[in-house]
Amino acid sequence: MLGLGLGIGSIALFSACTPTDTSPLADGKPEQGGVLTYFEPQTWTLLYPPSVGFYPNGGIMNNISARLLWQDPKTLELHPWLATELPETNADATTYTFTLRHGVTYSDGTPLTPANVAKNFDLYGKGDEARTLPVSEQISNYERSEVLDDRRVRFHFSAPSPGFAQATSTMNAGLLSDSTLDLDAEGFGPGGAKQIHTCGPFHITDETIGTKLSVRAREDYDWAPPHLKHQGRAHLDGIDYLTNNEYSVRIGAVLSGQADGVRDVQAPDESRVTEQGLRLYAKATNGINNSINFRFRHDLLADLDVRRALIAAVDRQEIVDKLFTPNYPLATGLLAKGAMGYKDQSGSWVYDPDEADRLLDKAGWSERNSAGYRVKDGQLLALTVNIALPQPRSNEVQTLIQQQLRRVGVRLSINPGDQSKQTLDALELDTVQIYHSMVARADFDNLRSNYSSVNRDVFLNGPDRTDADDDSVDPKVDELLDALAAEPDAKKRQRAAERVQDYLVDQAYVLPFFEEPQVFAFRRRVHGFATEPVGRPDFYSTWLAGEK
Amino acid sequence: MILDIRYLALRLGQAILVLLLAFTAAFILLSLIPGDGVTARFADPALGLSPDQIAQIREATGADDSWITRYLLSLSGFLTGDFGYSVQTGAAVSTIIAAALPSTAVLAASGFVTAVVLAVIIAVLATSGPAAGPLSWIRRILDSVPSLFISIPVFWLGILLIQVFSFQLGFVSVVNPGPAEALVLPTLTVAVPLSAPIAQVLIRSITEVQASGFVKVTAAKGASQTWLLVHTVARNAVLPGLTIIGLVFGELVAGAVVTETVFGRNGIGLITAQAVTHRDNPILLAVVVIATFGYVIINLVVDLLYPVIDVRLRTKRSAASANKALRTHDEPTRRALTASAASVGVDLDWAQTPGDTESKGRES
Question: What is the pTM of this model?
Answer without folding.
Answer: 0.83
